């Protein structure tokens, strides 16, 4: 029978969403697969059988060929660079000398030798210091081994100590191959007497082109004066002392005088440092030079202090004492401007940083005297601008919905440059009005704490944003006095501020312009009390046949919590819009005109709740 099915069984399956391999149970075409099924006991027996039973005992490797040390390490030598210090007691030119040597370690027999390279005309017997031999390491009888050698260590051979500073590449690779961590190399010290012999016998100094006599005649009686302070508060009973530093241009000498005050408890010494040239950088060998006894010469100094080193606003270290230069006199400023091209050097304020309490002028008075006094005021400015106040209407720029309807009145006092903010109280608003900010100077944002910039009259105009201690206000309107003040002082304001006032005046003129009279229009007469009664009767006639009058009375009684019989104008129109009161727009406009006329200043007037018609 011929075979007709040749498909293969699937060897992949899915379990929990993952493809897994499975053993096929049938072969090609569905034929049954024949395989040995061993039990677990048979599998354990096969796993525990030793392979020696199957393949026989393993063959032993042939022993390695013996290589003696004199063959394996033939001509392999470790080389170390070292030195030792030898005292020279009988010599005026040198106290000690540095002698460089090479230490050789022969790996074939663990022997060592020390050889000093021959230096021409040294006058010292050099060459082989220690011949090749095994060197003892201690009194027990141990000898030095290559494991005891490394860079950066001292070894003692026959009572002489050698300092190993370096080794060659073969030595480093050999020690690292044997698992020894090699220390970093050190610098070989130089012999002082050898370096001295390398210098030329005679030194020729070319005369300088600088003419000291010309300097003396040119800058005679010209002195730079600096005002400095020395802060000694870190030491016990230390304090800040004031000094005057004089720099004489004629010979580049420096003099330091202490500023004395009456009854300061100090002896009036005239000079802190006598007039002399001041060293800036000393020679390295001159650190132990007895400066208190001998005068310093040009051989001990690399650089002297000059006029370019004295700069206002930078510290200056003179003989171990650090002075801070905070000011100078006008002649010094002019000299630096002409000589070095520096602009006017500003005076550095000595006051401590502002602590945040009160105005900066008030805090500064604590630094001038033990009992602080009030800062001086501009009396002329106070007399000229007495009782002159600029008032502005502003709104709070805030994302909170309750703050959108809040209005504030800014008052700028020209006599003291102070600002006060008042919020008119609004009944039933949920916000307590009144004084929002007392009289104080307001600092502009992004100004430094040490040098604050306060708001001035030029910063207040319609549309300007004023930031007061984190609150942002937008100026909406001004009074008539501000408009007149800005017109008379137009030079103090920016074009943007003048444009806002111009738009404000134009808008006011358009609102106050009389409407064109028609043929049927009669002249408007002054409002009278009879007109108000007539208007009330007309509104009552409109509300007579409508059912909203009961709800209207209840709504007004809710807003009139004090039972005064009055509600505000804004509340009145709000209630009418909410209840859809059917009143003509012409009556509402006529009522607004009458209310404005009787209120006097045009502010929101009050409406009597008793004028609402009662049912029945």
Automatic annotation (TrEMBL):
Domain of life of the source? Eukaryota
Q: Which residues form the EF-hand domain?
A: 547-582
InterPro entries xref list: DM10_dom, EF-hand-dom_pair, EF_hand_dom, EFHC1/EFHC2/EFHB
Its localization reads: Cytoplasm, Cytoskeleton, Flagellum axoneme
GO cellular component assignments:
axonemal A tubule inner sheath; mitotic spindle; sperm flagellum
Q: Which molecular function term from Gene Ontology is one that the record holds? A: alpha-tubulin binding
Asked whether the keyword Nucleotide-binding is assigned, the reply is no
Q: Which controlled-vocabulary keywords does the entry list? A: Cell projection, Cilium, Cytoplasm, Cytoskeleton, Flagellum, Repeat
Is this entry keyworded Repeat? yes
The biological process GO terms on file are:
flagellated sperm motility; mitotic cytokinesis; mitotic spindle organization
SUPFAM superfamilies found in the cross-reference section: EF-hand
Q: Where is the DM10 domain?
A: 74-179, 220-340, 386-490
Chain intervals for the UniProt region annotation (Disordered): 508-527
- Which PANTHER family does the record cross-reference, listed alphabetically? EF-HAND DOMAIN C-TERMINAL CONTAINING PROTEIN, EF-HAND DOMAIN-CONTAINING PROTEIN 1
User: What is the name of this protein?
Assistant: EF-hand domain-containing protein 1
Q: Which organism is it from?
A: Myodes glareolus (Bank vole)
